[in-house]
Design a protein that fits this description.
elongated; 4 helices
């Protein structure tokens, strides 16, 4: 078992959640149950799956939860692009968040590869 609170992938994903919430809180109110909600759920899913997976008794089981976390990040990246296309965010914020998402995707993939060894 792993202590999720000490994992950099969990720490960085929690920071990302906070920033996604800050961004989506600026979206138009008609997006409350649409893109805003979907982005928040995708973002929260990442650290949640890391935490849940860390409690599993095998690295194989943990890797499954890391895959779900990774999938949530790809979903979030897509939603971020859509929010930019809808002009809910500017290119600077979008690029910054997108680079952080991609960095986290790489970190999770690397961590999964270490677990598989």
């Amino acid at each position: 078992m792993h202590n999720f609170r000490k994992l950099n992938i969990w720490l960085k994903s929690v920071e990302l959640v906070t920033d996604i919430y800050r961004l989506t809180n600026t979206f138009p109110s008609h997006e409350r149950f649409g893109l805003m909600s979907q982005m928040q759920r995708s973002a929260v899913s990442c650290p949640t799956n890391i935490a849940e997976g860390s409690a599993k008794s095998s690295n194989k089981d943990f890797s499954r939860f890391l895959e779900m976390s990774l999938g949530s990040l790809y979903e979030l990246e897509t939603e971020l692009i859509v929010s930019f296309n809808l002009e809910y965010t500017d290119s600077e914020k979008c690029e910054l968040l997108q680079s952080r998402i991609i960095e986290l995707q790489k970190m999770i993939t690397s961590f999964m590869n270490q677990l598989d060894k």
